[in-house]
Amino acid sequence: MEQLLHYVWKHKMFPLKELQTTEGKHVEVIDPGLHNHNAGPDFFNAKVKLDNELWVGNVEIHDKSSDWYIHRHDHDRNYDNVILHVTGNADAEVMRSNGQTVPQIVLDVPEKVRSHYRELITTDFYPPCYKIIPNLSALTIHSWMSALQTERLEHKTTAIEKRAERLDGSWEGAFFMTLARNFGFGINGEAFEEWAAHIPLNAIAHHRDSLFQIEAIFFGQAGLLQLEAVPERYQRDALNDGYFVKLRNEYLYLAHKFSLQPIDFKQWRFLRLRPQNFPHIRIAQMAMLYYEQRCSLSKIIECGKATGEKGIIPQMSEMLHTHVTPYWETHFAFGSESMKNEKNLSPFSLNLLYINTVVPILFAYGRHTGNEPLCDRAFDILEGLKPESNKIIRMWQDCGLKVKSASDSQALIQLKKEYCDRRDCLRCRIGYEYLKS
What we know:
By secondary structure, the chain is of the alpha+beta class. The chain contains 19 helices and 9 strands. The model has no long low-confidence stretch (mean pLDDT 91).
């Protein structure tokens, strides 16, 4: 309940009665102060009047007054400038480290706010605030969606920066790792990122003119050239599969040459995966993409410069469109033949790669280099892309929210994952509107 007290104080959702200290002094809140999420008092630089005398300083909030002593604020000089203690239950007086008494008030949360909050955090279906969504103003929705969209890009930027740090500052490597992760299309994302971290791009650049050797390294580092990685019912066929044997022998040579260590093949997940999404097919597609040298961070950055905004998406399609070798047209895994299929990336898959790879890498690199036009281009591309279609987006659409572009769908995914799933309704603007309604 302390979190709710913070919220009520911050937004001045006070009950319709005069506020008084426990000693009977009249309290007028002029400014609740700046909410502090780090160490120290909860609100900085608040302004309150106690019996018409203006006090400026910090405010501390606890569920019970005795929590002041549990947290040992009475021994901490950082709390000596607290001018008001706000509590839900005044079960004790509170003292500064110098022995002075801190004025305190008991803040009663309005019953309507309390009941709405209880409803938000206990409702099992999403979103619990659905009733109010059709009544929200277009300005409220637009401003919150814009903030969520930026927040999601910043979240992805942090992940990309960590990849660059892991690769000793290589942004080309971070791009390759980001692209690989998104080739996992969710279920194998973690495995693909770990696989990409084990691909020595500088070393295999010497073999970039050989698609066969690229495939040998890519599949070998994925652990998929080990016989144990082949389902037992296909192992005999794999041993009689000339391409599998040649790839494995080539990888053993290259692994010795570059001191390569593969990832554990058990990281790959196949359950409920359509064969088109098997790791073998995605790795074959990435091998072709790497071999043809059409897609890199430098080319992504140049994308759209020459032809203007309308030409960006066709250029991205040309860069990321990939296919597989004839062997993989008739296989979904080693030793398992299938009907011939070119296995190109679908428009749906390409759209996801634009949203989750191209846009974030442009934004992240723009932030890293201080190139604001690059960040702006990332937003422009997102606005021009089709929205994702999944159960999260359909849920919000059922609530009455319009989803016109990928910027909208990304904002709503951020809202669901970072607010709804965490029951963090007090930080959500829709939750705020619901609580005060």
